[in-house]
């Protein structure tokens, strides 16, 4: 017959083993990232945005934290918010052109019938010879460029836009085409603006006017603007964030639909765009960082997304567009996965890899245009669940890894509490 002491030892040992098995199972489950809601993984900090066509509205409401829609899709708003009331939906409006086929109305529903074309000829932007700038945004429809710097055009636009947004139930405005230099549609000399600095001053004033008008109407409404070709003015992004609730960079880290070109690299704007994410997070602004790639090119997407994750902290948003189209959204499983709380800012390893550690995983990015970089990553597993010890990153590539449970350490550190002899954990 066993002694009471032996029985107590057995009970302690059995309880410890049971606790160990349970702990290992729970740890393994919790170490694997869970899906997010409303485009946000609360601890990891990443949030996702949908542009114009979010797909299934109920599903999109659970996936995206910010959705930008045209006003003719406003019926999606209650469906999005039924899935998650925290999702913010912004009304798209272009800031600088009028269409000429219905008495010069702005695209998207205000201005029609108000005879802007004949009553306000001074609102139009003009080229160096004093002529209106006419272009075709849609086939067979003429459009006129408008003057961001004209105070009456600013007031008219702000008043009509905020009225439409509030009447249709939007959470704010998305201002497209905030130009930073004479380029594209307005390339060449302009009548009122002799250089890019003067043009930037005019566009900045437009954004500031709209922001002030919207906040006077409702402080909770958001104003987010799309800045066009701003990377040649490095200080502009932070400055314009002070007069808005956020800005879009729609050429983030990779542009175009080809994997062989279009990358921003170390020493060539990549650091500047990463710094923009840091700036937006530090200021608590709803900036939107949009990358581009070919359909099915998950490697390019991963490079851009991991770059964003190096600095994401819960204020800004990420989006990825395929083939230049925003009408067919693709969802990648890696988006919105909860990596746990960030354990600090990103760092650069001696090998030159940009990494950021989280309580449940890590991201690693090689932003160089040439050469492979190898990094030791013991204690992690890849997206397929396989344990990895090292990773090799080619040019413009990235990896997102998840922490795995060290079963040996769990055994050696847990079981001695039940009375088993302690052993030195192998290092």
If you had to describe this structure to a student in words, what would you say it looks like?
Strand 16 and strand 17 (387-393) form a beta hairpin. Helix 2 (57-63) packs across helix 3 (76-83). Mean pLDDT is 84; it is low at 16-37 and 406-427. The chain is 30% helix and 21% strand. It has two domains: 4-31 and 360-418, no CATH class; 49-338, TIM Barrel. The protein is an alpha/beta fold and 427 residues long. It starts with a helix and ends in a 13-residue tail after the last helix. The longest helix has 28 residues, at 4-31. It contains ten helices and 18 strands. The chain has an eight-stranded parallel sheet with strand order 1-2-3-8-9-10-11-12. Strands 13-14-15-18-16-17 form a six-stranded antiparallel sheet.
Please give the CATH architecture of the largest domain: Alpha-Beta Barrel
Contiguous uncertain segments of 5+ residues: 16-37, 406-427
**Count of DSSP-assigned helices:** 10
Question: In total, how many beta strands?
Answer: 18
Structural class: alpha/beta
Average predicted confidence as pLDDT = 84
Radius of gyration: 27 Å
The CATH topology of the largest domain is given as TIM Barrel
Strand order of the largest sheet: 1-2-3-8-9-10-11-12
Using the coordinates above, name the CATH class of the largest domain.
Alpha Beta
General form: globular
Largest sheet: 8 strands, parallel
How many domains?
2
* Distance N to C terminus: 42 Å
Beta strand %: 15-25%
Name of the CATH superfamily of the largest domain: Aldolase class I
Helix fraction, binned, reads 25-40%
N-to-C SSE string, H for helix and E for strand? HEHEHEEEHEEHEHEHEHEHEEEEEEEH
């Amino acid at each position: 017959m066993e002694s009471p002491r032996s029985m107590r030892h057995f009970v302690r040992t059995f309880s410890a083993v049971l606790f160990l098995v349970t702990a290992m199972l729970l740890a393994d489950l919790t170490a694997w990232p869970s899906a997010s809601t409303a485009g946000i993984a609360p601890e990891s900090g990443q949030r996702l945005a949908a542009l114009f066509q979010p797909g299934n509205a109920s599903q999109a409401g659970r996936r995206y934290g910010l959705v930008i829609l045209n006003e003719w899709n406003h019926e999606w708003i209650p469906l999005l918010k039924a899935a998650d009331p925290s999702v913010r939906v912004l009304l798209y409006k272009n800031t600088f052109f009028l269409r000429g086929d219905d008495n010069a109305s702005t695209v998207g529903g205000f201005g029609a019938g108000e005879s802007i074309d004949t009553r306000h000829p001074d609102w139009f932007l003009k080229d160096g010879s004093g002529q209106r700038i006419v272009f075709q945004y849609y086939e067979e429809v003429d459009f006129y460029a408008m003057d961001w710097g004209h105070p009456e055009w600013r007031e008219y636009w702000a008043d009509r836009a905020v009225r439409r947004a509030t009447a249709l139930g939007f959470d704010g405005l998305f201002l497209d085409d905030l130009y930073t230099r004479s380029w594209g549609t307005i390339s060449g000399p302009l009548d009122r603006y002799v250089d890019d600095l003067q043009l930037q001053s005019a566009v900045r004033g437009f954004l500031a006017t709209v922001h002030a008008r919207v906040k006077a109407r409702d402080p909770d409404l958001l104003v987010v603007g799309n800045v066009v070709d701003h990377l040649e003015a490095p200080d502009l992004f932070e400055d314009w964030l002070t007069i808005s609730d956020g800005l879009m960079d729609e050429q983030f880290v990779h542009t175009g639909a080809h994997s062989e070109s279009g990358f921003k690299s170390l020493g060539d704007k990549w650091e500047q765009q990463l710094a923009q994410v840091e700036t937006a997070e530090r200021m608590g602004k709803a900036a939107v960082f949009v990358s581009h790639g070919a359909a099915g090119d998950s490697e390019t997407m991963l490079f851009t997304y991991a770059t964003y994750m190096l600095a994401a902290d819960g204020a800004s948003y990420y989006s990825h567009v395929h083939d230049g189209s925003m009408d067919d959204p693709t969802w990648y499983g890696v988006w919105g996965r909860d990596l746990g709380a960030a354990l600090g800012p990103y760092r650069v390893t001696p090998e030159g890899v940009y990494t950021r550690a989280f309580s449940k995983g890590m991201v690693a990015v090689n932003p160089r245009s040439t050469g492979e970089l190898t990094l030791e990553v013991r204690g992690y597993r890849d997206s397929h669940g396989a344990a990895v010890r090292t990773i090799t990153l080619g040019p413009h590539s990235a990896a997102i890894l998840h922490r795995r449970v060290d079963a040996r350490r769990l055994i050696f550190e847990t079981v001695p509490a039940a009375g088993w002899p302690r052993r030195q954990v192998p290092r």
